[in-house]
Amino acid sequence: MSLITEEIKAKAEVYYGDEICQEKSKFLLTEMGLPNGLLPLSDMEECGYVKETGFVWLKQKKKTDHKFEKIGRLVSYGTEVTAIVEPKKIKKLTGVKTKELLVWVTLCDIYVDDPPTGKITFKTPTGLFRTFPVSAFEIEEVKDVKEVKETNNGVNINGSVSEVKEFPLAETLNSEQKSKAKKAKEIMSLMITEEIKAKAEVYYGDEICQEKSKFLLTEMGLPNGLLPLSDMEECGYVKETGFVWLKQKKKTDHKFEKIGRLVSYGTEVTAIVEPKKIKKLTGVKTKELLVWVTLCDIYVDDPPTGKITFKILAGLVRSFPVSAFEIEEVKHVKEVKESNNGVNINGSVNEVKEV
């Protein structure tokens, strides 16, 4: 449903046609102290600006995707883009999404630091934000704009674009998400006490811990390669509560090649394990672009769809094929028979097929 009513149009400066809309949109962004290449729509049919409220809209014939090469980010622009534009800020943005790994994430706010630091920040409705260099969004060669002098507004665009310098990405959590993070820290404070150990099956040494952790994951209907720790010193499992812990000598990073994802495992990993689920996970992070994001829950679809889902504290989820986390050949597990539990593992591992 379009936000642009006839009432809004009556109060606005309205323009028709791609050439004039390109010129006006770039000029407005520059006038507001924002990079002039932020909204690279193409084949525009209509644009408008209500100076009184800052409301702006852009309409193009069809949805377009644009890659900002200097930061390697893909952004999708719908047929109708709207926003509230203020000095150094774009608020209540609609019609624009950025690709966050394999998921399109809606953007809501964009702002440039004031006083200027050379950074521009993009915010999502979940509270996460990403910061990039302003220069990555500048259009370097726009001959019809470079020599424009708007003396009434004091704008003079005739300089060259400065060299882009990379800035670190950033993220933040809103109050609800901070509360979740606090709870996670409280859970961590309850880690492996002697009281917990007294109720648990505890094992020492890498070989037995590898065997037991993989067997437990398999028993719970989870991929046996989900927790690829190395050089483990200790592991334990409280059957009554599902609480499990794994300790390794040093932090390790593991790349799941089939999905190209890097995951970091701390020296101590804990979780509550249930059939087809891992909850309250601590000590595991996944690389979200250039930021390490803490995972909290993992679950396999039931009934099975061949997918496994990872959830982070901010509420975002990612789904991947279960087969990407299976260990294809684990010789020391193949012949294990757990007669007490009625489990007999003596077959070969099936060939992994992508879902």
Structure description:
With 355 residues, the chain is α+β, with helices and mostly antiparallel strands. The chain folds into 2 domains: 6-156, at5g01610, DUF538 DOMAIN; 175-344, Roll (at5g01610, DUF538 DOMAIN). It has 7 helices and 23 strands. The longest helix has 15 residues, at 175-189.
Q: Which helices and strands appear, and what pairs or packs with what?
A:
Layout: H1 6-10, E1 13-16, H2 18-31, E2 44-50, E3 55-60, E4 64-68, E5 73-86, E6 89-100, E7 103-106, E8 109-112, E9 119-123, E10 129-133, H3 143-146, E11 149-150, E12 155-156, H4 175-189, H5 194-198, E13 201-204, H6 206-219, E14 232-238, E15 243-248, E16 252-256, E17 261-274, E18 277-288, E19 291-300, E20 307-312, E21 317-321, H7 331-334, E22 337-338, E23 343-344
Antiparallel strand pairs: 1-2, 2-3, 3-5, 4-5, 5-6, 6-7, 6-8, 8-9, 9-10, 11-12, 13-14, 14-15, 15-17, 16-17, 17-18, 18-19, 19-20, 20-21, 22-23
InterPro entries: At5g01610-like, DUF538
Protein name: DUF538 domain-containing protein
Pfam family, one: DUF538
Give the overall shape, derived from the CA principal axes. Answer: elongated
Q: Give the N-terminus to C-terminus distance in angstroms.
A: 35 Å
- The helix tally amounts to 7
Runs in which pLDDT lies below 50 for 5 or more consecutive residues are 141-173, 184-190, 330-355
Secondary-structure element sequence?
A: HEHEEEEEEEEEHEEHHEHEEEEEEEEHEE
| Mean pLDDT across all amino acids | 74
Question: Radius of gyration, Cα only, in angstroms?
Answer: 26 Å
Protein name: DUF538 domain-containing protein
Pfam families: DUF538
